[in-house]
Amino acid sequence: MSDPIRTLVHQLSRLPGIGERTATRLVHHLLRQDRALMHALAHSLVDVAERVHECPRCCLLCATEGPCAVCADLRRDDTLLCVVASIQDQAAIEATGEMRGRYHVLHGTLSPLDGVGPEEIRVQQLLARLGSDDRAVTEVILATPPSVDGEATALYLSRQLAPLGLKVSRIASGVPVGGDLQLADRLTLSRALSLRRVL
Amino acid sequence: MHLEHLSCDGLRNLVEVELSPGRRVTLIVGDNGEGKTNLLEAIHLASSLRPLKQLERQRELLGEGRERGVIRARFEADGPLPVDIVVEGHGKRATVAGKAVRDASELWRKVGVVAFLPDENALVRGGPELRRRMLDRVAFSLDPGFAVVARRFDEALERRNALLKSPRVDVEQLASYDAPYAAAAATLTLARAAAAHRLAPRFAAEARAIGGAALDAALRYQAALDDASGDAGMARGHDELAALALAALGRAREHDIRRRTTSVGPHHDDVALLTDDRRARFLASQGEARALVLALKLAQLRLVTEVRGQAPLLLLDDVAGELDRTRAARLFGAVDETGAQTFVTATHTSALPPLHDAVVVHVRDGRVTPREAA
Q1: DSSP B145
Q2: Residues 111-140 of A with CB under 8 A from B
Q3: What is the pLDDT of residue B371?
Q4: In a domain, A130, yes or no
Q5: What is the DSSP code string of B71-115?
Q6: Is the CB of residue B103 less than 8 Å away from at least one CB of chain A?
Q7: How far is A151 from chain B (nearest CA, A)?
Q8: Is residue A63, in this structure, part of any structural domain at all?
Q9: B159, A155: Cβ pair inside 8 Å?
Q10: Is A16 in a helix, a strand, or coil?
Q11: Total domain count for chain A?
Q12: Interface pTM, i.e. ipTM
């Protein structure tokens, strides 16, 4: 195996879910294809590396100069801010079409097992924007996942946000819509009961 | 539900094993160290994906110099149910009916197993950890969803302890983990209380049946979240228990920070086994402890059979060495009643009470040779 191939295999196998065998297969697949594919791939990688950055306001990733498309959209509700752990979560919530307000992406949750504390996620950025550009916000929706770390992150944020006097809410969790109660796990059912609401 | 066929190779000392067990009792005969218990291990893994005993390292499951062990089991559970397991040094992979298994509860819903091992007197006379694990297995067998509840609590405890062990404890962060921890602790406590509630009367009845009226035994779940205990865990609702836990965490915070570990929670639960209202742990003789262990196991077998509507597999390792003839007869009587497909190991067939329709196999140096029906 010549050096450039080995280097590429090594680089690819650093990606999550890709071991050395898969990386080797991918490289040999590329070598069998038209070389234009590799050039296009390399160009895309460089383009992403150079142009994609975090939006200075909401921390979403974007390729535009300055704020992202969501932040630049003047029709959005400035009083509502939804805090999510990841870009994928933001995309999922946005896809519902229910959330007409603004977003803030933490890029993670608290995670003591990985040594991730508040300084490692975008908590300071959140507090800073609520104190400056986003003074119009009246409600912050905490949409971190219902995992232990996600719950703790929501509670941590609610404590940090308390002095600002905003309404702070947490997304509900419980039985999935269209789901069968008998099949819901005990934990989900127990939460659904404990977080029940009056009709 | 029953096991129709099992092939196994590379697991501990087992070599190219092909086992076609009896529908009722399979007697596994061989000298000590030949691989009888290892065969039970293969059956236990195939029916629950869990090892017979807690392992220090996965590697212990593999034979010397073996990189992998393979188990292929074919169950009959409302249709053929093939289970394939590959054990490697760092972990195991399993497929049930050709699909990769994500968690063991999927298999438990269809198969299930109860095992009697020698030297389990520690269950009565040892510390609370073994009894907690026993209760958790019962809870899991009543509701495989218990695995999610237990895992959630473990995750919360692990994170809280990680924060307490960090060089400079961030109190704000620690406090943020208190509520999810308290909620997980309350859910686990309630699930354990429910399991104990169902196990307790069966345990008392089995103890009386084994030891006679003189053996007045009781089982009581002692929830660390609720020292008053008894059935109190059942009487309190989830939110009340969680609030209790949260308050206790607050009171223990300074202490926990100093000790760098979480002192409040169901990881300190115990299951008290009582004879004549006194703790058997400190009082029971070896013989009495053995009778209580047997009563616990029979109570589990009956409860699991009742809940599932069919008996789980039953593995009895060297029971003849553990039980006198009367108790062994009592055990096999219960086995007959439940109709559980049973695997019994022994050094000699003569050590056991007569067994109907038993298939006898011989284990020698990790290999299994079929024998005549007894």
Answers
A1: T
A2: 111-113, 117-118
A3: 64
A4: yes
A5: EEEEEESSSEEEEEEEEETTEEEEEETTEE-SSTHHHHTT--EEE
A6: no
A7: 6
A8: no
A9: no
A10: coil
A11: 1
A12: 0.83
